[in-house]
Amino acid sequence: MIKENQKILNRLLIIFDAVSIMFSLMLAWWIRFRSGWIYVDSGYLSLREYLLPVLIIMPIYIIIYSFFRLYTPYRFKNVFEELFNIIKSNIMGLLILVLILFLFKEIHYSRYLLFIFALCSISITTVERIIIRLILRRIRKKGYNLKHVLIVGFSELTVELLRRIDKNKQWGYNVIGILDDNKKLGYKVKEKEVIGRNYDLEYYLSTKDIDEVFVTLNIKEYEKLQWVIGICEKSGVRTQIIPDYYKYIPSRPYVEEVDGLPIINIRHVPLDHVIYKVIKRCIDVIGSLIALVIFSPIMLLTVGMIKFTSPGPVLFKQKRVGLNRKNFNMYKFRSMHVQKEEEEKVQWTTKEDPRRTKFGTFIRKTSIDELPQLFNVLKGDMSLVGPRPERPYFVEKFKEEIPKYMIKHQVRPGITGWAQVNGWRGDTSIKKRIECDLYYIENWSLFLDIKILLLTVFKGFVNKNAY
Questions:
Q1: Are the C-beta atoms of 21 and 121 separated by less than 8 Å?
Q2: pTM of the shown model
Q3: Dist. CA 437–CA 413, nearest whole Å
Q4: Which contiguous run of DSSP H or E holds residue 320?
Q5: Buried b vs exposed e over 308-320: b needs ≥16 C-beta within 10 Å?
Q6: CA distance 436 to 429
Q7: Domains parsed from the chain with CATH numbers
Q8: Which of 55, 200, 254, 328 has an alpha carbon 20 to 30 Å from 309's alpha carbon atom?
Q9: Do 417 and 452 meet the contact criterion of CB atoms below 8 Å apart?
Q10: Residue 318 — φ and ψ, nearest 5°?
């Protein structure tokens, strides 16, 4: 039933995508030639002449959409990943369209219109997909189009899986029950019962309408795994394995092959790739220069106010631990009274901290005190986006207390980061901050950096946790 629903959905998506592309072309033609927004010379191709080439390459557009996984199930698909794939698909489709026009020597096809068409197609397809996503989520939350699943094995993973399924109703999973050899029959977790033993698997697959089986066996029971997979494949039911060692591997494991032997890299860091490093560094340099120009009036005013309201230097230098655990001097506008170096190294800033000046409270709350770090970015000590750097004293302390804490030093620290835009800033949970830092390190992309910068602009400057 689920497979049939997916086929129907895919057919509908193809029709909607085709309509969106055609409507985008018509809208682009209207904007270019009939809206009056753009100057038009006398004489231009009719709408029919513009539509014909797009109609011819429509199957190519659909193939490209399929290549970029725009027709895969929506249950777990990330909305930002889908948007990025829509952009890539339409750019590739446009390039193919331009190539066809060039080969057929069609010189009267407006380049302005092609550009407008690409923007319209990306925008309209994105709106279409968001609407479909919202409709599907609402349908699944109401109990329709559900996937009926069985869980084999009881462990910590089982509890975590059930917690996430319960939290994400839009996934549309209906857990029939749990099979386990160790727990009592009738034992409940998250309102789901242990309904049988592992050897009952074949019975349930043959008598119940099961769409998928999740395997959450304890690592000590992995000798049963081959048998479970064999039963599922014999019954034609899809098997999903959540390994008991999942906590030790990244959310997106990087698998290499050594003479046909798959090897999982425990920590995949996209920024280890030299191309990505160069791209990020170029953006850091250009972005920090632009930011220095934009914020220079605020910075000059801040310099004057610090001098006027408190004796001491304008800039405050502090040792922080950066890339590859190397120390560097991080710059900030001074927001506190001048302290002894020994005190400053080990004291944590707290709410109502008496060391702050009146003007210092304001610039900390609005993050203006962070602006001199743009010079750290230019120097290469920091990046615009990354995990926040910490003082050596606290690094030594946290690395013993917080698991995986030192992994954050595998990338350049940032002025802003995923933890900061999610509210984990100032005197908040170090553990939560590290979770956010690890997510950023393992899932880095140019799009994620842009998202963090935009979130910083809209909600990151003024923060209730910035003391």
A1: yes
A2: 0.53
A3: 10
A4: strand 315-321
A5: eebeeeeebeeeb
A6: 11
A7: 2-141 (no CATH), 147-248 (3.40.50.720), 272-460 (no CATH)
A8: 328
A9: yes
A10: -145, 135
Is beta strand 254-258 parallel, antiparallel or unpaired with respect to 261-265? antiparallel
DSSP character at residue 424: -
Residues sharing a CB contact under 8 Å with residue 47, sequence separation 6 or more, in sequence order = 26, 29
3-state secondary structure of 334: coil
Secondary structure class of 354 (helix, strand, coil): coil
Which tokens hold the place of 176? 């029939």
Residues composing the chain = 467
Q: Are strands 212-215 and 147-152 parallel, antiparallel or unpaired?
A: parallel
Q: What is the residue-level pLDDT of the chain in tens, covering all 467 positions?
A: 555 666 777 888 899 999 999 999 999 999 999 888 888 877 788 888 888 888 888 999 999 998 888 887 656 567 788 888 899 999 999 999 888 888 888 778 888 899 999 999 999 999 999 898 888 878 877 777 788 999 999 988 899 899 988 888 778 889 999 999 999 999 999 889 999 999 999 999 999 989 899 999 988 888 899 999 999 988 888 898 888 776 666 666 666 666 667 766 667 788 888 788 888 999 999 999 999 999 999 999 999 998 888 888 899 899 999 998 899 999 999 888 776 565 555 555 655 566 778 888 888 888 888 999 999 999 999 999 999 999 998 998 888 888 888 889 989 999 999 998 888 776 677 888 998 998 999 889 888 999 999 888 876 555 555 54
In single-letter form, the type of residue at position 444 comes to W
Contacts of 318 (CB under 8 A, 6+ apart): 329, 330, 332, 344, 391
Nearest to 416 by CA among 427, 424, 405, 404: 424
Q: At 4, list the tokens.
A: 């049939």
Q: Is the dihedral of CA 118, 120, 121, 125 positive or negative?
A: positive
Between CA 356 and CA 227 the distance in angstroms is 65
Whole-angstrom Cα distance, residue 235 to residue 224? 17
Q: Map tokens 């869980």 to a residue.
A: 151
Is there a contact between 441 and 272 (Cβ–Cβ < 8 Å)? no
Could you tell me if 77 and 61 are in contact, meaning their C-beta atoms sit under 8 angstroms apart? no
CB-based burial, 370-399: b 16+ in 10 Å, e otherwise: bbbbbebbeeebbbbbbbbbbbeebbeebe
- Whether the CB-CB separation of 14 and 71 falls below 8 Å is answered with yes
CB 119 within 8 A of CB 146: no
Distances (CA, A) of 127 to 19, 87, 318, 387: 13, 13, 47, 33
